[in-house]
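Changelog note: in this version the structure field was regenerated for every chain. One regenerated record is shown below for reference.
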Amino acid sequence: MRSMTLCGLLLLLTLAGCGGGGGGDDAAASDAMVDAARSIIDPGSHVWTTSDGIEIPYHIGGDPNAEMTLVFIHCWMCDRKFWDAQLPVAGERYRTVTMDLPGHGEAPDTREAWTVAQYGEDVAGLAQYLGLEDLILVGHSMGGSVSLKAAALLPGRVHGIVAVDTLHEADFVFAGEQVEQILTAFDADFVGTCENMVGMMVPEGNAEVLEQVRASGCNGDRAEIGMALMRDFGTIDFPAWFREAGAPIRAINAAGAQPPTNIEGNRRYADYNAVLMQGVGHYLHMTQPETFNPLMMTWIDELAGGGAEGEAEGEGSDS
């Protein structure tokens, strides 16, 4: 499948159909509509408005003529800049899209309720607005769950999901007591609890990454959003979401993550495979991009049809 043609994009925008000649004002109007349709997928920074009126900043880069588009979805309390080390290599062969989810980065925080499922609708809505037919979703942490929901809403368009230290075990249950203990700690001291948590997730020697993560997620300005999302995360039916996504999942996870990556268990619900990285912490794409990026591109090329399944070095074992 190729990316949506200009005709399809025009139809999506309810502007005009393709074909049929015309002259004078009709031709000028047609040219204007073509320019308007093309502008939303031009490289650069743009803004798209969600169904509930939130203006989401998004950026398009990479190969503008690529058939496949990679949509990068950031983690909890993060932003689109967390993918800066991946975009140059990914953009050599693919179009890339990054976005700030509502309540994150530069996106407004005026939504009434905060759920992972709604973020899936946001990602799917942007893809539909852009007329993207051939997609691979790359999601870190919470972004992996968002990718599952978005894929379910884009049947036939998503060729696969690259999960980054996420989607470890579909059967893992986030017990209510555990969730409440975490929420209690965050409620008492959001900034301190967040900074301590992040400190345990970033290996020593990565001061810049640590500062970036803390500055993005631990300043307390959007503590209510962060806590609402944590509470919602504990309600997700992951076996159902794995099934409903209807897309292959290829994970790149930290070897010491909890819960551990359960390849065989996850295969009960989806076409799933994983490669593990040692000593990288939760933000592995930021702490070791020189190791992470080749693994990511191997999975992407496979999902895009450019590589044989099972070629990722270290697949299913520690890398």
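Spot check on this record: The first helix runs from residue 6 to 12. The first strand starts at residue 44 and ends at 49.
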